[in-house]
Amino acid sequence: MVLSALRGGLAFLTRLPVGGGEREWDAFRTTPVVFPLVGYLVGALAALPFTLLYAVPQPGTVAALYLATLYLVTGITHADGLADIGDAAVVHGDAERRLDVLKDSQTGVGGALVLVLSVVALALGAFGLVTATANPIVALRIVVAAEVGAKAGMALLACLGTPAHEGLGSAVVAENDVSGLLPVSVALLPALLAAPPSATPALVCALFSGPAVALLVRRWSQAALGGVSGDALGATNELGRVVGLHAGVVAWTLF
To answer: Which of 10, 50, 116, 239 has its CA 20 to 30 A from that of 26?
Structure first.
């Protein structure tokens, strides 16, 4: 069951060629702990460019390689969700009007703006991480913590939200409840294990930024959309990663 859920999670959250069909999808959408578990793999792969810090001490190059690796592994499905949420956020009208905008395949000004800002902010966060740490191990751990935290945010949203409408999001959100948060919480612990004291504040901030973002997205989604949609899950992932990376860099610099 767990292996099927992991395979389904990898198929949904990444572009890795793991296959998977309806059985794996059903296992994944009822097992929220898979979100952070997949986050460890995605974070480790995306962080590989930071291992080049000693060989290629160019912050801009490492940051660019990080972005390229990240989106090569994850694809743009969740970024598209963020763009849709951006379009819905600037719409004047009720929840029904915003839901209509979410279903529109065209990207408007609001979506384009929030998407560009998120990518730029992510690149700046990676750049800041290179210049602030100059330590590949610390940088890698912060990147992984931010990714795991972003995925944990998705799991939190799936466990606490109510579906906004029938669709991909409701297939996940409607199948989970608050009981799923305990295994999700336990899955976060490895990101903090064996951390040197100097890195612990940065890892904690990077890790828990994703769930904090998820609570804000949930509040907005419930008020603006009447519930949580698949796009809200995607937006939580993208925003949680950005905030987590910056929070990790700031905490490392200050503490």
So the answer is: 239
The first and second tokens of residue 83, run together, are 């763009």
The string of DSSP letters for 121-151 reads: HHHHHHHHHHHHH--HHHHHHHHHHHHHHHH
CB-count burial class (<10 Å; 0-12, 13-18, 19+) for 96: exposed
Task: Tally the residues of the chain.
Answer: 255
Instruction: Give this prediction's pTM.
Output: 0.95
Structural contact between residues 236 and 217, judged by C-beta atoms closer than 8 angstroms: yes
User: Taking all residues of the chain, what is their mean pLDDT, rounded to a whole number?
Assistant: 91
pLDDT bucket at 54, cuts 50 / 70 / 90: low
Cα 212 to Cα 165: distance, rounded to the nearest angstrom: 24
In whole angstroms, give the CA distance from residue 226 to residue 247.
Answer: 30
What span, in angstroms and rounded, lies between the C-alpha atoms of 165 and 229? 7
The whole-angstrom separation of Cα 34 and Cα 148 is 10
Strand partners, 237: none
- Cα–Cα dist 82/76, whole Å: 10
Tell me the Cα Rg of the chain. 17
How many Cβ atoms from other residues are within 10 Å of residue 148's Cβ? 32
Residue 228 dihedral angles phi and psi, to the nearest 5°: -100, 130
Q: Residue 73 corresponds to which tokens in the numbers above?
A: 């592994």
End-to-end alpha-carbon separation of the chain, Å? 42
Q: Where are the domains of the chain?
A: 32-254
Token digits for 195? 């951390």
